[in-house]
Amino acid sequence: MRNHFDVIIIGAGPSGLSAAARASEQKLSYLLLEATEAAANTIRNYQRRKLVMAEPRGLPLRSPLPFAASLRESVLISWESVIADYKINIRYNSKVVAITRDTESKQPEALTVELSDGNSFTADHVILAIGVQGNLRKLEIPGGDLPQVQYQLDDPEAYQNETIVVIGGGDTGVENALALTGRNQVIVLNRAEDFSNCKESNLTQLTEARQRGALDWLLETRPQSIEANTTGEFPITLLANTPKGVERIPCHRIIARLGALPSRPLLESFGVAFPTADLAALPVLTSRYESNVPGLYIIGALAGYPLIKQGINQGYEVIEHILGNPVEAADTALLREKFASFCSDRGIEDVLDKIQRSVPLLRLLNSLQLRELILESNILQPAAGDIIFERNDYSTSFFFVIEGELEMFIDEDDIADDRFKSGEFFGEMGLLSGRRRIATVRATSQCALIETPRRVILKLINSVQTMRRTLDEVAIKRIVHACIGLSLSEDDLNDLATHAVIKQYAAGEELFHEGDEADGLYLIRRGSVTVSRMMTGREVVLFYVAAGNYVGEMSLISGEPRYATVRAAIATEAILIDIGRMQGIIARNPEVRSSLDARYLQHLQEQEKRQQSETSSDSSSGFSNQSAQSSLISFLIQQGVGEATDVLLIDESLCVRCNHCEQACADTHGGATRLDRDTGPIYANIRVPTSCRHCEHPHCMKDCPPDAIHRAPHGEVYIDDSCIGCGNCQQNCPYDVIQMAVIQDQPEQSLWQMLLGIRPKQVASTNNTKVAVKCDMCKDIADGPVCVRACPVGAALRVNPEQLLGYASNNVADEHHILGFDDA
Predict the structure, then answer these.
(1) Which parts of this chain are annotated as the region Disordered (predicted)?
(2) Is the CATH code 3.50.50.60 the one for domain 4-134+262-327?
(3) Which residue has the higher pLDDT, 555 or 640?
C-alpha cells in the first residue's frame, strides 16, 4: 500500500471533493481522507429535500465537480457519480489527529498525517478541507442544555403542530424556519436588526412566508434563559430580551442555528497560526490558501469561505497552485474595475496587500473578507479641501483611510478637533447611533478612502469579534473625547476605553434611579433617554437626551445620590465610565472639571426655575405647568418621537380643518397623500397624525428585497422607484405610516390653468401596480415640506427630539396663558 503521495486532502466536503477530482484529472498521486462513513457529510445532515443554493450567482464555477441549485438529494447523487466516474481515491472512517514534519526522514520536506487508528501517510502537500460543522456553537444561557433545545434539524416533517422557536438569522436558521412552516407555528429570533447575513433568495422566501402568516420574527432580540414547565401545554418557556423589554415565549422546542467555530485547538496542534486570540478568528493564509506551515493549505469554510460554490472553486484553484499553474481568482475582474483609478499600474494582489498594510483594522480580515468588503464599497480620492461629510448630515457610511490626512471639526469655529491619518478610520458614531453626524470631516491633502455602507460593516463586525472590539475601543475614546473634553491625554483616553463597559437597555428600562448611589458617568452611544424626578407625588420628565451626549454628571460633582431617574426612551446603548476613574479624570483635568461644573450649575438653575413655576401655578386649579409639560413629553415619546428624527405635529386648537396639508401633499406626490390629518393619537390639543417619523434606525428599511428605501443626506427616509410593492415595509413600520397605493399621473398645467390657478385633473396611471408610499419630507423641494407651508394658520409644524423640551414648554405656556392659569 502506498504511503507517500503528492497531495493528501483531508475532508470530503465540496472543497475536498473538488480538489480530489482536479487532482485526478491532473494525474497527481493523491489520497482523500474522510472522518465519517460517507462523503459530503455536512450536506447529508441538511434537512430532507432542502434546496441547496448556488451562491454567489455571478461567480463562475471552475471544477470537474458539478454543482447547481437543486435539492439536497440531487446534489448528493451527482457527487457520488463523480466519485465513481473519477475513481476518487478516498479512505472513509479516517480521522486525522496530527500533522507533523519529520526533518530526519528520507523526505524532510514531506508532511506526515497521522490517523486515530494508528496509520500514517506522508505527502509533499496537505490540503485541509474539514469545515467547521463539528464545532457547533451552543446557547450559553441557563436552560441551554434542556432536551427540548437542539442545534440541528434533520427532518422537518418529523414535527407537527408545535410552536417552534428558531434562533439565528443566517441562512441555516432561515431555511430551517421555512421548512417547518405549514405544519407548525414558527417564530424566528434574530439578534441583528435585519437579515443581512442571509442570501437574498432566502430573505425573499422568509418575507413572503411572514406576509402569509406562516411564521413571525423578532428582531434585535437575544435569548436570556430557558425555563422548563411542569404544567401546561408547552414544555419550555424562552425568556428573550427584545427592544420592548423581556418577553416570555412558551414553546415546544427551540432550534438554535448559531453557526460554528473553527477547530482551533486541532489546527494549532498542526502548527497553524491565527492573527488574534479570538476563538472565531480565521487562520493566517496566503492568496494561494497556504498557511504559515509550508505545504499545508486550508480551503473551504475553515478558511472563512462558507459558500459551497466558493469552496468548490478553491478546491480546483489549490491544485493549480500546487502544480505551479497561474490561476486568477473569479472576482479579480470585478476588483480590477473597482481599482481602475487607484493604483491601476499595480496587480490586484499588490493593491489588496497595500490596503491591508495601510489599515491595521483590515489586517484582521482574511483575503476573502477583504475582497468582499472592497467589492461592496467605494474607493474615494478626495483632494485637499474636499468635504467628506458635514456636521448634521445623516449619512451612515464608514470610512477607512488608505492614504492622506483629514481633519474633524466638532464646532463651527474652524479649529480642528481631531485628525485622521493613513491607517485610521472614522464615521463610527453615525454608524452606531443612526443620528446626524456630530462633526465635519475635511481632507487636508490628496486622500484615498474606502467608503463602506453601514449594512456591510455591521455584518462584518458581527462576524469578526476582534474587529468589533477594536472599533468599540476607538469609538469609546472618540465619544469620551467629544463629550467630556478635548484636553484629555492619550493615556487617560486609553485607560477609559480599556475599562469602560458597554451596556444595553430596552425601551423603558432604567439606567439608574433617583436616590441611587452614583456608579459613574453614562455616555449615550445609541438611542435616547429621558431624565425625570418625583415632584409633588408624580414623576416629571425634565430632559430628553439623545445619542452623543451624557448623563449622570450631577452626582459626580455633588457627591450626593442620583438627582433623577434616567430611563431609555427606545432601545439604547450606553458607555459606563466607573466613578473611580471618572473622579480621577476630574482631579487631573481642570478643563473637564470646569465643563462639568458649568453643566451642574445650569441644571441647578433650571431646576430652581421649575420649582418656582410649580409654586406659582394656580394651586386652586390643580394644574401645574411642569406636570403638563412632563405629560406632553411622555406622550410624544410614547408616539415614537424618541426614535424619530423629524415628526409632524398638528395643533388642534389652531387647525381649521381646511385639509390644505393633505391636498398639498397629494398634489406634490402623484395624487397619493403621505399623511392622514384626522388619524393618529392626540394629547390635549396636540395630535401626532399618521405621517412618517423618519426614525434613527428606520424599521421600514429592514428586509426590503430591492433595497428601495434610503436615507438622504439631510435625514429624509424615502422610497425610490425600484419598489416592487411587496409590503414588507408596511408590515415592519410600527406607526402605520406606509400605505400601498397606485400613483396617478399628474398632467402639466396649461398656460390658462396656471394663470387662473386651476389644477389639472389627475388621470389614472397606465400602470395599476401598487407601490409603497410614505412621507419623504419633500426632500427635493428647496423650501421644505409642503404640508407645513400649506397650512394657513400655522397649526402644522415639524419637530425633532432635540427640540422636544422647548416645544413642550412653549406649548404648555401658551395653553396656560389662553386658559388664564398664569395670570397672577
Answers:
(1) 604-625
(2) yes
(3) 555
